[in-house]
Amino acid sequence: MSGPVAFGPVVTQGGVAAASNLAVKVYRRTAPTTLVVELDESFGRNWQDQFNETGSGSLQVLNDDPDLASVVMGDLIRFELKGVVAFALLARDWQRASLAQGEEAEQITTIAGPGHLAVLDEAVLYPSRPLGARPIQEDRPFNWAAVEFDDSSWPTAQVLQSVGDANAGGWPNQPFATDFPDGTSSVIAPWSGTIYSAPVGFCYYRHTFTVTTAAWHVISGTADNNGKLYIDGQLIYEIGGFASTYQQRVKLSAGDHTIAVQVENTKQPAFEHLPGTAPENLYLNPSGFAVAVYTIDNSGNNIVRVTKTDSSWLIAEYPGAPPGMTPGEIIRLIVTEAQARGAIPEITLNFDDNVDSNGDAWPKVDYVTKVGTDVLSVIRELAGSYIDVAISPAGFDLYAWNKDGRGNQRYITTGPATTYAATTNPATSNLAGLTHHKVM
Q1: What span, in angstroms and rounded, lies between the C-alpha atoms of 286 and 225?
Q2: Hey, is 281 helix, strand or coil?
Q3: Angle 306-310-315 (CA atoms, 0-180°, nearest 5)?
Q4: Do residues 35 and 29 lie in contact, with contact meaning Cβ atoms separated by under 8 Å?
Q5: Core-most of 155, 167, 245, 361, by most CB within 10 Å?
Q6: pTM given for the model
């Protein structure tokens, strides 16, 4: 990973022998460093370098130019200013008259296309689990409920009591939920506060379990005070309170599955005063939840308990904001998944899960998008709120920064020259004679 990087044309000129102002060179996608041909007779050359977008470019070539035959659909066409690559387009659009009638315009082929950041639209976002896995993943979350979320630093939750126990834990003189189907499931809770008075706010729980054979399952859950239960990132139901048990039938494929539960503890009115307790325990405000998962047969009968709440469940206690992923982690996941399927092999990342292309720490975000969205659209969505993005004009290095943290914009310095170098601290600029349309 490098330091701050600037994008756009950068030329510092000093000396007497100068390169030509603008060269147009063609490369194959599969061999981006091997020159195929230089279109030195091309004309009408222009491009738009669009901020956080692919941009676009075009050029024109006479039909009888022998170099035209060397250009094929999908080639990389690079515009070089003073020997420095300023922009690269993907040759995706060809306009050529099939039957020329003698007019000058009909003797010309126009080649156009988006900037080569557009290669990202060739890959799509797949579900977290294999295609066809159940539950069907229509939305792909990148947050605390995601299958891929790293919960390795989370501690285990506190076990208060079994659901069916009375005179124990935070719900004395009553079971936790009278209609819960499995009285042996543990009520688990945060460690903060006491069993009689937990802090108000949200806690997040995760647990991974294994299904040996694809089948229908019933998911039972109850929470104090309310919650949301997800399996493999898909919302199964919302829990309205521990006085009732919520259940849902779900088809689960064989393999590992992740349950994620958000539990909110809200202030409650006073319950009974506990005999023998200090006055500060007059207001009973515990928190906790319980879950049990059963395989069911065709008649709907529960036959095998697959998992339940116990001391192995993990918790993030009152984090202030929902635990999330960094933009760098999200992009890395979707790009490497696509590359594992053989798509966009050229792309390399100039950032990591923790820091952006400037070396600045990423924030944690809560991002959800639709399965089947192409990777370029995901990048655009992230750029709307969280990141700036660009691709190196001369290669396929993908750069991403925190919003408004993109590297300094490159510039052009002209004068008597033999030396051309990139810099981010311009002394003088003279854009006379250069046509370059930049769209913000």
Answers
A1: 9
A2: helix
A3: 115
A4: no
A5: 245
A6: 0.83
